[in-house]
Structures are given as structure tokens and as C-alpha cells.
Amino acid sequence: MKCIIIEDEPLALNLLESYVRRVEGLTLIRSYTNAVEAFTFLQSRAVDLLFLDIELPQISGMDLLRSLKNRPPVIMTTAYRDYAVDAYDLDVVDYLLKPVTFERFLRSISKVYQGQQPVPAEAVTNSATSDYDRAYIFLREDREMVKVYLRDILYIESLRDYVRVKLPDRQIITYQKISYLEQKLPETKFIRIHRSFLVAIDKVTAFTPLSVQVGDKTLPLGRNYKHQALRALHSDNVML
Question: Which of 37, 134, 219, 239 sits at 20 to 30 Å (Cα–Cα) from 105?
Fold first, then answer.
């Protein structure tokens, strides 16, 4: 898992770097002391995990996070408790208070591993029907990793720190953020219609300015997602 650290305090930076080196499976590819340089790097390189301080020179960690279109999983690090609510509103994986102990660091990494669901490259980059038919993700259900083909997903519902993935014959509830799945699933196949719902476009059977019908389920169309969702559903490429 490739990660970068953005931290302007030398002692805190050295501590995090030493923790990363101690965990098998983590690879530190860059460390930054300001968010501006990190922003430039993140525009052209994908990372699997970002350790992000909040109080940074030039722009804050919060502002950096808001500016990223495709956010990697983020663990916030700070000496202040006051930012916790804002951080979780941005779907961070965890919020670490300094000084960070190694035990607490490992608990955060464990949350990242629990939340990561590998998506094959073809599920993200290719839209051809044959490729999409083969695309899948693994979802953790209880103690098993369950293989789910993207073509079988009807919709995904957010349950705070969990999601419900609705399939034709069953549902899977797994520890995951809906925003993470939204970033990983192909945008030509899935559309966010509400803060709590992500739907497969080809499974939509009817829609109005207020709701979307998927099978026998009527899902609300959120105000902040309405324009983009209706544009996708009205597209000439969508066959309802």
C-alpha cells in the first residue's frame, strides 16, 4: 500500500515515517512539509493512503482535502480535537491525536485494510461490455471476502460507516464508506443520486425529478445530486 505523509513538524514527521517502515505492506513514497507541493504530486500520481496534518503552512490539510477530486483514504493527524467533526464530514478513515502511539497507529491502519476492497483495473478504466461483465470487487462480509460482479449490483446504500450492497437475490452489508466506492466504481456505470445512494445506471427502470426507481425500490433523488444524476439518466447512452 503506497502512502505519503504531509506533516510540517519534524518530530511528528520522523515518528510517522518510522511507524510506516515498521508495518509490512506499507511503502512510503513521499513526505511533504506543506500541502501545496503535495497537491501537485497528487494530481499526477495515485496513492493508496494519505497521512495528513491539519495545521500546515500556506493551506491547511482540510483545504487540501476539499480540493482533491479523487481522494485516497486519509488518516488525519493533529494536536487539536476541534477539527474532528469536520474531518469525518470529509470521510476520513481515522483522526489521530498527537503524540501518536504505535498501537493507535496500527488501529488506524487496520481500519484502512478493513475498508479497502480491491477493484480490478478493468472495472475502473474500461467501459466495453465484455470487460464490464468480468469486472468485480471483493466485499468483506463477516469473516469472508465475497466476490461481487459489478454487473449484479442494483444499488449501494450508505449506513454511516457501512454500506448495504443490494444484489438481485441478496444484500451484503460491509464496513466501507460510500464515497470510497463511488470513486472506485466506473462513473459511466454508476451514479450518485443522494448522499446515501449510489445506483447502477442500467438498473434504473424509471425516474422523476424527485426519485429513481430500481426494480421495486423507490430511492430519493437528493437536491445536491439531482442535476448530474438526471443528466446521466437522460443521456443518449442510457437505455431505460
Answer: 37
Q: Report domain 2-115's class.
A: alpha beta
- Residue pair 8/56 in contact (Cβ under 8 Å)? The answer is yes
Phi-psi region of 219 (alpha: psi -120 to 50; beta: other; left: phi over 0): beta
> What φ, ψ does residue 48 adopt, rounded to 5°?
-95, -20
Is pTM, for the whole model, over 0.70? no
pLDDT digits (tens, 9 = 90+) for 15-51: 999 999 998 888 999 999 988 888 888 888 888 899 9
The CATH code for residues 121-234 is 2.40.50.1020
Its sign, for the CA torsion 40, 76, 67, 10, is: negative
210's grid cell:
424527485
**Angle (CA) 230 194 52, round 5°:** 120
Q: Omega before 99 cis (within 30°)?
A: yes
